[in-house]
């Protein structure tokens, strides 16, 4: 089992998006790469410096990191700074936070390919994970508990595997 931490705007939609894919074993939403102090959601909304992030545990035998990152880039605007959809602020910055340096070649390969495709420097951070604090319980699987909740990711991306008997 491998783990990667992905920041891509509001973590509710990003979690729901990744939960649908075979090979994703578990996800957890939380706050990453801010000060070394566990924030509350209110702290994060008041610019604590943390990014809304999803911890993605994946089985590399059925979901390679390259594949996971290609999916990630499908649902973010990689040129947008501190904003995804209508959500604005430092907590909505995009980033790929890793804990295993052996993941860097795959990260760099996909990043460079996406930068070429965009024709401009990406606003996606690539850096080691400094810290991760799980979000409050009510944020976990939020869109499953609140199907009408706001999400910047278009609905059709949240149901990509349903027709194939996905998760």
Protein model, in words:
The protein has a 6-stranded mixed sheet, with helices on one face. Strands 4-5 form a two-stranded antiparallel sheet. Helix 3 runs parallel beside helix 4 (104-118). A hairpin with a 2-residue loop joins strand 4 (83-84) and strand 5 (87-88). It starts with a strand and ends in a 22-residue tail after the last helix. The protein has 167 residues and is α+β, with helices and mostly antiparallel strands. The longest helix is centred in the middle third of the chain and has 15 residues, at 104-118. It is globular. The chain has a single domain (2-160), classed as Peptide methionine sulphoxide reductase MsrA (Peptide Methionine Sulfoxide Reductase, Chain A), CATH 3.30.1060.10. The chain has 5 helices and 8 strands.
Number of domains: 1
Radius of gyration: 15 Å
Share of β-strand residues:
15-25%
How does the major sheet shape up? 6 strands, mixed
The parts where pLDDT drops under 50 for at least 5 residues are 163-167
Give me the strand/helix succession: EHEHEHEEEHEEH
CATH superfamily: Peptide methionine sulphoxide reductase MsrA
Content-based structural category: alpha+beta
The top-level CATH class is Alpha Beta
* Shape-level CATH architecture: 2-Layer Sandwich
Number of helices: 5
Shape, principal axes of CA atoms: globular
Helix amount: 25-40%
Terminal Cα span: 18 Å
Q: Find the CATH topology.
A: Peptide Methionine Sulfoxide Reductase, Chain A
Global mean pLDDT:
94
Number of extended strands? 8
List the strand order in the largest sheet: 7-6-1-3-2-8
């Amino acid at each position: 089992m491998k783990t990667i931490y992905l920041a891509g705007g509001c973590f509710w939609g990003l979690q729901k998006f990744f939960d649908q894919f075979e090979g994703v074993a578990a996800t957890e939403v939380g706050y990453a790469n801010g000060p070394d102090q566990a924030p509350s959601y209110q702290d994060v909304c008041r610019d604590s410096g943390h990014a809304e992030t999803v911890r993605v545990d994946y089985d590399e035998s059925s979901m390679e990191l390259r594949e996971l990152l290609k999916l990630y880039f499908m649902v973010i605007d990689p040129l947008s700074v501190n904003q995804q959809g209508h959500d604005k602020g430092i907590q909505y910055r995009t980033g790929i936070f890793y804990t295993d340096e052996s993941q860097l070649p795959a990260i760099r390969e996909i990043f460079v390919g996406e930068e070429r495709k965009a024709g401009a420097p990406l606003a996606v951070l690539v850096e080691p994970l400094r810290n991760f604090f799980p979000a409050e319980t009510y944020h976990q699987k939020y869109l499953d508990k609140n199907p009408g909740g706001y999400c910047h990711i278009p609905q059709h991306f949240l149901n990509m595997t349903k027709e194939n008997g996905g998760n």
